[in-house]
Amino acid sequence: MGDAKSKSRKLATLLASETRCIYCANKPTTVEHMPPIGMFKGRSRPNGMEFAACEDCNKGTSGADIVAAFYARLSQSDNPGMLDEAIGLRRKMTMVAPGVSEEFNGPSYRQWQRTPSGLFREMTATRVDGPLTKSDLTAFSAKLAMALYREHIGVPLPLDGGVRVAYFLNAGLSQKAGDGMLSKLPLPGTLRQGRFVVPDQFAYRYNYDGKSIIAGLAGFNSNLHILMIATSNPVFYDFPIAKGHLQLVRPGELRGLLPRTVTTSAATEQPAVHGPIIR
Ligand SMILES: [Zn+2]
Q1: What is the pLDDT of residue 76?
Q2: Is the pLDDT confidence value at 172 over 90?
Q3: What's this model's pTM, rounded to 2 decimal places?
Q4: How far apart are CA 259 and CA 90, in angstroms?
Q5: Given this model, what pLDDT does residue 277 score?
Q6: 36-64 per-position pLDDT tens digit
Q7: Cα(21) to centroid of ligand 1, in Å?
Q8: How remote is the CA of residue 178 from the centroid of ligand 1, in Å?
Q9: Host H or E run for residue 13
């Protein structure tokens, strides 16, 4: 298949241009998709946002990717198939992120939320307090912040730089708080491959200075939101709300956030389905 050939050519080109893993000081040896292919329905992901990473960071954090993919699919909107995929991911999670599934006990309370149209609707909220889930979603959020830094600033986040992140599950981010954040983040971003775009599955807004700092709010299926700031100078720049509240994560610290060291064959990425699926 020509696929394997073009894949290795892509890897060679990427590695020739990048001297460092986007997540740590190691030499890169793999292509990291961020957001991962598994975040997208039917693994159908537009090209783009492919980064150089070392194998340890890439494979070693795949459990966090699957946990994020699972929570992103617990959608309150009518997106057929998402829930079926969540069930499959929950099974996979027991292998690559042991213990996380046990922390999830399903939707735990109902509350009224204002929808974008202004109407109130009763929605099911998921309460997740487990320490393993928290570690995984924090590591995933930190990965996304480091990837967006590389994407928009043009270099990997310096080793003495850092990110601060906060994640919100479904009803956890109120319309008012979200709107307040978005007003400070004027630039829209998503993955785009020609006319193939899936902004309902992944979109973000951001602001940056072009050389040392990026702030962003990313959404997956309106169900997992991630607020982030990534900067080469975490002492000078910071979110006032983040200080002392959100953990600072520096390059090289991702694996240390995760409660496990084992990687299994189930963690190995399968290829993406590029281009829209015709059914
Ligand atoms: Zn690395």
Answers
A1: 59
A2: no
A3: 0.84
A4: 18
A5: 41
A6: 999 999 999 999 999 999 999 999 999 99
A7: 5
A8: 32
A9: helix 2-17
**How many angstroms separate the alpha carbon of residue 79 from the centre of ligand 1?**
35
pLDDT: which is higher, 108 or 133: 133
The 10s digit of each residue's pLDDT in 186-211 is 999 999 999 999 998 999 999 999 99
The alpha carbon torsion through 220, 186, 23, 194 (nearest 10 deg) reads: 60
Q: Which residues are in the CB-under-5-Å shell of ion ligand 1?
A: 21, 23-24, 26, 54, 57
Cβ–Cβ under 8 Å, residues 35 and 220: yes
Distance 230 CA to ligand 1 centre (A): 17
Question: Cβ neighbours of residue 229 under 8 Å, at least 6 residues apart?
Answer: 145, 163, 164, 165, 213, 214, 215, 216, 237, 238, 239, 242
Buried b (16+ CB within 10 A) or exposed e, 110-139: eeebeeeeeeeeebebbebebebbbbbbbb
Q: How far, in Å, is the centroid of ligand 1 from the Cα of 137? A: 18
What is the share, in percent, of the chain residues with pLDDT greater than 90?
53
Mean pLDDT, to the nearest integer, of 93-120?
73
Task: Give distance in angstroms: CA of 61 to centre of ligand 1.
Answer: 10
From the CA of 141, how far away is ligand 1's center (Å)? 16
- Is residue 57 within 8 Å of residue 23, measured between CB atoms? yes
Q: How far is the CA of 29 from the centre of ligand 1 (A)?
A: 9
**Cα 225 to averaged position of ligand 1 atoms, centre (Å):** 24
